[in-house]
Design a protein that fits this description.
Shape: globular
Strand content: 15-25%
Structural class: alpha/beta
Number of helices: 17
Order of helices and strands: HHHEHEHEHHHEEHEHEHEHEHHEHHH
Radius of gyration: 20 Å
Distance between the termini: 26 Å
Length: 351
């Protein structure tokens, strides 16, 4: 599904308290939704809003709230940023418009959705580009991340921190064990209406079928499709394990959340306050990344306990297979030589 749908699904179903405890995230840091919305800010010199799409107990919001608390404390109350989680102020598309026009000052948005405004942000979704998290952070905390942030700035927005983690996507199935590219041939797989994912599975000779996320469970249950692909947290919270048998740890696409800011509101802040915001959001970005890594491990154990069999996929074989097609060359043309070169600098030669 699209990350927008991912966000909404996570919001609807939430991530269980038990699962978050297993991941090592401190739930005491999570603030009840009513508390977030009602905090007074009358004493602040600057009163801003931060919107997110995730459930209040999601690591994104736990760590964001901690950062906002530190910002208020460090600035002596001069800057007070209220957190509005769970799409309380609108859908992802609505909020992207609001952060552009100043209706909200800060908003976290996945790279895949931001690509509708700044296309090059979608380069991080390139199929089988990232082998692991070390490679992801090498790229996103390095030259590729710097380049993407500069392109986002051209759209009138600022990126207030390093990128946060939205996780790797994996393939689940009710009929086949997916380990190699041959296992995907003719495989009926649900995909979101996202060009990158559709082209990826077409190149691998699967049968990608666009289906809205709210129809996914029934489509799997009735065998309209054999499988789907999503991060483990979504597979768990949407209870897709009830209609699937295996999960192949393909990690075929990675996605992240950019913490976006309205440029006019950002420039109103004195330099010392901007520095505090960047420092504290960066700190929480690192902590949220660690949370997601722990959560992914605990979810594997949780899903295995529900009857799911985990399979190790041969990512190198998938990548080699894609190189025989026009997949990487087509996306290289779309994103341009400079951006593609920075991606390959981190991940190795793709096309």
């Amino acid at each position: 599904m699209t990350t927008r749908s991912t966000t909404r699904a996570t919001t609807r179903a939430g991530i269980s308290r038990r699962t978050l405890l297993a991941s090592g995230v401190a739930l005491s840091a999570a603030v009840p939704l009513c508390g977030i919305l009602s905090r007074p800010a009358s004493a602040a010199e600057f009163s801003y809003k931060m919107a997110t799409g995730q459930d209040p107990t999601h690591p994104v919001n736990i760590r964001a709230q901690e950062a906002l608390n530190r910002i208020r404390e460090t600035t002596g109350g001069r800057l007070d940023i209220a957190l509005f989680p769970a799409n309380q102020l609108g859908s992802d598309t609505d909020l992207l418009g609001q952060v552009r026009n100043g209706g909200v000052e800060f908003f976290n948005l996945s790279a895949s959705i931001l690509a509708t405004l700044t296309p090059v942000t979608g380069i991080v979704n390139t199929g089988f580009a990232f082998a692991d998290y070390d490679t992801v952070w090498k790229a996103m905390d390095g030259d590729l991340g710097t380049y993407i942030r500069a392109q986002i700035a051209k759209s009138g927005l600022i990126t207030a921190s390093r990128i946060w983690d939205n996780g790797f996507r994996h393939i689940s199935s009710s009929t086949r064990e997916i380990r190699t590219p041959d296992d995907l041939k003719g495989f009926k797989i649900r995909v979101p209406p996202a060009p990158m994912l559709t082209s990826l599975f077409k190149a691998l000779e699967a049968g990608p079928t666009p289906i809205n996320f709210n129809e996914l469970y029934s489509a799997l249950q009735t065998k309209v499709v054999e499988g789907q692909e999503n991060p483990l947290a979504i597979i768990a919270t949407a209870k897709l394990y009830e209609v699937q048998k295996t999960i192949s740890l393909t990690g075929h696409v990675w996605d992240g959340y950019w913490m976006l800011g309205n440029r006019r509101a950002w420039e109103k802040l004195p330099a010392d306050l901007r520095a505090v915001v960047e420092k504290e959001l960066d700190r929480s970005a690192f902590e949220q990344r660690a949370d997601i890594a722990r959560l992914s491990n605990s979810l594997q154990q949780d899903l295995a306990g529900k009857g799911i069999t985990f399979l190790k996929a041969d990512a190198d074989a998938f990548r080699a297979n894609l190189r025989k097609t026009s997949f990487y060359g087509d996306w290289k043309t779309k994103y341009g030589e400079e951006a593609w070169g920075l991606l390959e600098k981190a991940v190795g030669k793709l096309a």
